[in-house]
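Cont'd.
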Amino acid sequence: MGSVALRNIRKSYGAVEVLHGIDLDIADGEFTVLVGPSGCGKSTLLRSIAGLETISNGEIALDGAVINKLQPKERNIAMVFQNYALYPHMNVAKNMAFSLRLAKQPKDEIDRKVRDAAEILDLAPLLDRYPRQLSGGQRQRVAMGRAIVRDPEVFLFDEPLSNLDAKLRVQMRAEIKELHQRLKTTTIYVTHDQIEAMTMADKIVVMRGGHVEQIGSPLELYDRPASVFVAGFIGSPAMNFLPAAATGGTLVTKSSVSVGKAPAGVDEGRSVIAGFRPEDLRLADSGMPAKVVVVEPTGAETQLMLRMADGDIVFTTRDRISVGPGDTVHLQIEPGKLHCFDAETEAAIRQDAAGQ
Amino acid sequence: MTMQNDRLLAYFMILPVVAAVLAFVIGPTYNVGTLSLTKIVMGQERGFGTFSNFTALTSDPVFWLVMKNTAIWILGGTLMCVLVGLGVGTFLAIDSRMTTGLRALILLPWVLPDVVTAMAWKWMLHGQVGIIGQTLESTGLTEETISFLGDPKLVMWTLVVVLIWRKMPLVALILCAAIRSVPDDQIEAARMDGATAFERFRFVVIPNIAFSLTAVTVISMIWITAEFALPWIMTGGGPANASQIMATYIYQQSFEFFNWGVASAMSVINLVMLASIVGLYLYINRRSWASEGSK
């Protein structure tokens, strides 16, 4: 079992509070990703769970038992570090066996566990190598092996893929996900890359400035972002935003372009932010007029940067279109794909289910 | 043609260094080497190609006392210097306002001139008027003042203590810097792996600083072997050769007794010892983990 509960976690460095009361429940076996821009406190939160940082206030519970005050080694939690943190003077086998050796486990037991982990991670032929003789991906796997041999309640990953090149990152992403499906150990994974978060997570926790912005499954966050921040952070290319106001049941921008139906419950004249994803736009004969600035074909889809009177927007399409820079196009938003946020609080204004 | 000109120019450019090394390193070494194989009587050379200087040395009981004292001086001094330096360096590596100040302050013994250090300690350790002996007596820790430099049983170890006071700070600073450069995430990984503070030090910090540790050991050994002013000013090798070490003995034999041959023979022994230390260092570093695998 490895369920984690965080209650009102606060962390201050001197007078500066970096975590402002985090509440989070993670079920046993769940793959949770903490995601957010740098400085949002996600790594601090992870290190607090590991026990490498002490928290100023709140409670961390593992399977119901409060573990705040315990030393890292007493928590039965394993961590994979961003820079792998392998011991350079030990070979792969010794790196993986280190924790078991310290725990004074019998030698044949250690050997068996290291062999099993090496088997899982395809490291068996590399057991005698030293870290500096390994590639980045292999080092990453050794770091994971070191966590696996301990058979912990919880795995923590601190931006483990950020040092790998793009291609390897995609491959390791799949490997980590596969490993999790196989071991079913509760995993908490920190990243600043929303693609990693989307592809791997059962549950994403979007953080910003020491607060939790939104918790949900990847598609929940994508389809129903709770704020402008989450809407802009999740999804690539990012969601387009235009300032607008509710006028006669529709959202109208400053330059009097109607973007779509106002959600129910938005008062006449209220300032809002209209949001729509690049892939939810369609070319049409009428609709929002925009001038093409740049056309970027990538093969599978084409991305267009467009200039409207109210700001620049991005539009992606899988169709082969024949427009060039300088052309004026008209766009419409797919029905039900318009998001509406309060201009002041930047919180989502939810349409009721019937309105969708 | 130009290739050849370039090469000539290159040789010309390194000529001053080659000349300096020949004149000031190889030359004197060769001179001492030949002198050690030359029989000298009353300052007059009496035949080359003899080992009489060496046999004269080894048959002299003072030589063996000097060897024993030198062993205490070099091995004891180096070992203590590195061990104490490691301890102090580990302490200084801790981040706090106090250690930041201490890191600067600790260099004080190291920047003092040898002569000042030697005189200061000589008076502090003096048998009658030394403040250390008097303090020990007046606080009742000893029944009478101890003559640290006058007691043949104590004098060598007293010298070693002063030596450590003087040489340890730089060792501590070098090791402190090495310890501080150990990646934090390795220490944290070890904490996650369940290592206690001692285990982290033993299995993560020490292997990471192994390079600096061996280098600093060899450097201290060479410094200590070459250290002359400290023992010479403090004891002059006395009482009754009880603190006579190679450096002081060589000086005494050559410049007080003018036994050039014996002094040269001793110098050659000294050189062989130092060369084997450096050889050992190179051998250890060849086998260290940093070069492992690329055999």
